[in-house]
Amino acid sequence: MIIVGLSIALMVVSVLMIMLVLLHKGKGGGLSDLFGGGVTSSLGGSSVVQRNLDRLTIATGLVWIVGIVALGLLILRQG
Amino acid sequence: MLGAFVRAFRTPELRNKLLFTLFILTIFRLGAVIPAPGIDSVAIEKCVQQTAETGASNIYALINLFSGGALLQLAVFALGIMPYITASIILNLLTVVVPRLEALKKEGQAGQSKITQYTRYLTIALAVLQSTSVIAMARTGQLFQNACIPEEYMPFLHTSYELPVLIMIVFVMTAGTCVIMWFGELITERGVGNGMSLLIFTQIIAEFPAGMMRIWSENPAWVFALVCVAGVVLITGVVFIEQAQRRIPVQYAKRMVGRRMYGGSSTYIPLKVNQAGVIPVIFASSLLYLPTLVVGLLGAETDNKVVDFLNTYFNPMGNHPVYLTTFFLLIVGFAFFYVAITFNPAEVADNMKKYGGFIPSIRPGRPTAEYLDYVLTRLTTPGALYLGVIALLPMVALGTSGAAANFPFGGVSILIMVGVGLDTVKQIESHLQQRNYEGFLR
User: Fold this and answer.
1) Which CATH class is domain B220-256+264-402?
2) How is A47-77 classified by DSSP, letter by letter?
3) Do A72 and B37 touch (CB under 8 A)?
4) If you average pLDDT over every residue of chain B, what do you get?
5) Domain B1-214, CATH
6) Residue B195 and residue A10: Cβ atoms within 8 Å?
7) Interface size between A and B, measured as CB pairs under 8 A
8) If you compute the radius of gyration of chain A from its CA atoms, what whole number of angstroms results?
9) Keyword Acetylation: yes or no (chain B) (predicted)?
């Protein structure tokens, strides 16, 4: 049962991760700069909001990857 | 050359950028090795080898190459950057067709970021689709051509918690794709080079040593030497053409603005032979990978007419003439399409006229635009043909052995390696030149 619970928890974290990444301003996306040239490197630093968002994303990412490894080990142990 | 490296690391700004890029790429590779929860990495490794030994032509080899071997290991980052690329291609093509998107594109920065946001949503949707189909194929054992038993690498099958775990893996892989997307954006924003293409580059390079080892162990030494020589020759040729450009002279008239003198200089517009870069190749190969996806979704073993058709004509390993011709035509078509999107002769001619520039012996305005268009078309023709030939060369040369995609110097991978490598070095160089003049390239 603990596996089912953890799986659901990991799903929630995954969704959270997707949300957080989508919240980032999509910089340097699209193909406009895939072909080299064009406008390069944005100027200026990031705002406080952006920085906090970065921190939150990194924290969630750490939880996510730890969860993946832990759950993986757990399932293999059971099987 | 080495001095340039030392200088690059002495420049604090550039050093930070380089280290940041390397750091992200390292995490990226790590994620490509960590298996998704519930997957036995040891068993799956054995499976991959078994499949390779049975000699079954694996239709997923090309996708596997693009994901740096992560796909067949069912890693967290199994899907790699492919969904993002496919999404960008789809949106880019739609921009031409759908008026609303075209209007957004013309809006400039704000519109562009909106299109980017759409691309990201589409990426997530594609990631869900692909991860579901990959998991479904892994569960039936079809991913490895039934060379081994699914229960071996998925020990949780036939237990009470099978379904939640399967769904969880789909979620994890989708989130993984999302993280990769973020990595790409981070590299573009704070690192060196273009994130998306650098990530593909890493994935292809990651498979490179393994491919060389395979050739070394499976063939006599002279074959290995021959492959190495062929690779070096190919790379030289590709670099040569990538760097080739036609310089159209432009003369600027002298102007007095207030008491200062402007213009009066003569420069040139560089028109590259291969203006489109590697994009057409990436486009064509990811479009041609759609049939594989369809086959994966419908199941290869059915007697479905569509599947049969796709398997005969569009099997990436089959080297069927229809497949090769389609590939070639797609590359050539995309090359022209891309040049048309990225370089607008009328706009360039207009700008030149505004600043008092002209091409000697050509009148400014419309005749200039026509001239530029004429030159560009003539330049792109060999450029597009070259792209097509290079991409197809190894497939044709290696023939039906099915080794083409495993060949480390495959046309697609060589074009991407050289193209991205050159682009990145040039960007590093432009950073270097802000400080001192000597760079990598002489």
Assistant:
1) mainly alpha
2) -HHHHHHHHHHHHHHHHHHHHHHHHHHHHHH
3) yes
4) 81
5) 1.10.3370.10
6) no
7) 141
8) 18
9) no
